[in-house]
């Protein structure tokens, strides 16, 4: 990210082929707008569709100067390679494995990492797999969430980097484990609880940094009692957008808005869907990437298929929730889809 004042409001880097919103002045890379909105792009701040290239503004001269400087700054010539950055050195140390095979060697093809010598595994991912697969094989879904919380605490004690938990879908037949770990400003994430408390009335999104790649997925969103405003629950097929907005404002976002609507590509319009509620009950989210279908349930009652589209067949697809003003939820994942919902969903 730069501090030039000419940053794209989507990628937060120096805007290339810069386009300026004529209504609010926000600036964007032309390519970012095309990738996210197509040719019918709009401003994420004010939703205006009126843009002009920076060459038609009074900022052209200053922009060209900054663009030129960014292109002519070259690294100094040196006779020998610079030393490895500390982070790379740390990674090299962590990758010095023992001679013994990981207990999941048939799957991971790796040796034991000294950090996990007592557990006889090669990585935090293998440790998660070892703990959770036993519960899954025993159909003990009630304790899967507890084990995840214990492993998260263990991860902190070991001081190792988190792993992309969605990857377990290949072992759990679509019953993926994920975490909400990316969010707009003001949102707090504490293990399986996500909370927003602020004076503003602007939707902000919480999402996962890793998306689903294939299969059928089911998870639950449970509103907290402190919630004062309805939320938007669903998925996005892109992670290139401003988390200070609702994911369903974009064409790639699909949401059950709990005012009793379904939203896609709009912050003001949607069709009637589901039921209206604020801070009670629980929402089940059912995503079938085999057929490209998204559906929801409320308190175990099937609300019907919300949308079917080719866009939901190709990963990555990210679980998302948009919160407003004062709202929060708990999420549960790693769950099999209830059979009564599947029966209706697959009709």
Map the helices and strands.
Elements: E1 19-21, E2 27-28, H1 30-37, E3 51-53, H2 60-72, H3 86-94, H4 105-108, H5 124-137, H6 144-158, E4 182-183, E5 187-190, E6 193-197, E7 204-207, E8 216-223, E9 232-236, E10 253-257, E11 259-263, E12 271-276, E13 283-288, E14 293-298, E15 301-308, E16 318-323, E17 326-332, H7 339-345
Antiparallel strand pairs: 1-2, 1-3, 4-7, 5-6, 6-17, 7-16, 8-13, 8-17, 9-10, 9-16, 10-11, 11-12, 13-14, 14-15
Features:
single chain; 347 residues; alpha+beta; Jelly Rolls; 3 domains; seven-stranded antiparallel sheet; 7 helices; 17 strands; 20% helix; SPRY_dom; FBXO45-Fsn/SPSB_families
Classify the beta-strand content into a percent band: 15-25%
Uncertain stretches: 72-78, 87-95, 161-175
Largest sheet: 7 strands, antiparallel
* Helix and strand element order: EEHEHHHHHEEEEEEEEEEEEEEH
Structural class, from secondary structure content? alpha+beta
Q: Distance between termini?
A: 49 Å
| CATH architectural category of the largest domain | Sandwich
CATH topology of the largest domain: Jelly Rolls
Cross-sheet strand order for the largest sheet:
4-7-16-9-10-11-12
Number of helices: 7
Total domain modules: 3
What best-fitting shape do the alpha-carbon axes yield? globular
Rg from C-alpha positions?
A: 23 Å
Task: Give the CATH superfamily of the largest domain.
Answer: SPRY domain
Considering DSSP H and I runs of 4 or more, what fraction of the residues is helical? 10-25%
The number of strands is 17
Mean pLDDT score, rounded? 80
The CATH class of the largest domain is identified as Mainly Beta
């Amino acid at each position: 990210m730069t501090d030039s004042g000419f940053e794209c409001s989507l990628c937060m880097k120096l805007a290339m082929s810069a386009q300026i919103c004529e209504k609010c002045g926000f600036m964007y890379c032309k390519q970012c707008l095309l990738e996210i909105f197509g040719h019918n792009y709009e401003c994420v701040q004010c939703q205006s569709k009126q843009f002009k290239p920076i060459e038609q503004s009074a900022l052209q001269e200053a922009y060209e100067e900054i663009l030129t400087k960014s292109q002519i700054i070259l690294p100094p010539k040196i006779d020998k390679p610079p030393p490895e950055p500390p982070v790379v050195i740390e990674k090299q140390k962590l990758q010095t494995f023992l001679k013994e095979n990981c207990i999941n060697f048939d799957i991971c093809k790796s040796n034991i990492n000294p950090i996990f010598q007592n557990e006889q595994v090669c990585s935090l991912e293998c440790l998660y797999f070892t703990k959770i697969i036993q519960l899954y094989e025993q159909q003990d879904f009630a304790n899967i969430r507890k084990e995840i919380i214990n492993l998260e605490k263990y991860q902190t004690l070991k001081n190792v980097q988190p792993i992309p938990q969605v990857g377990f879908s290949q072992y759990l037949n679509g019953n993926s484990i994920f975490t909400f770990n990316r969010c707009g400003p003001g949102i707090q994430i504490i293990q399986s609880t996500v909370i927003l408390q602020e004076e503003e009335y602007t939707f902000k999104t919480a999402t996962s940094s890793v998306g689903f790649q294939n299969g059928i997925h089911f998870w639950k969103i449970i509103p907290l009692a402190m919630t004062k405003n309805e939320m938007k629950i669903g998925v996005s097929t892109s992670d290139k957008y401003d988390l200070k907005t609702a994911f369903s404002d974009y064409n790639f976002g699909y949401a059950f808005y709990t005012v009793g609507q379904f939203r896609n590509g709009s912050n003001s319009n949607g069709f009637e869907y589901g039921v209206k509620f604020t801070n009670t009950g629980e929402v089940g989210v059912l995503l079938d990437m085999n057929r490209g279908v998204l559906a929801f349930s409320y308190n175990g009652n099937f609300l019907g298929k919300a949308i079917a589209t080719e866009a939901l067949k190709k990963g990555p697809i990210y679980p998302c929730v948009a919160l407003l003003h004062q709202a929060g939820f708990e999420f549960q994942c790693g769950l099999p889809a209830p059979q009564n919902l599947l029966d209706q969903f697959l009709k």
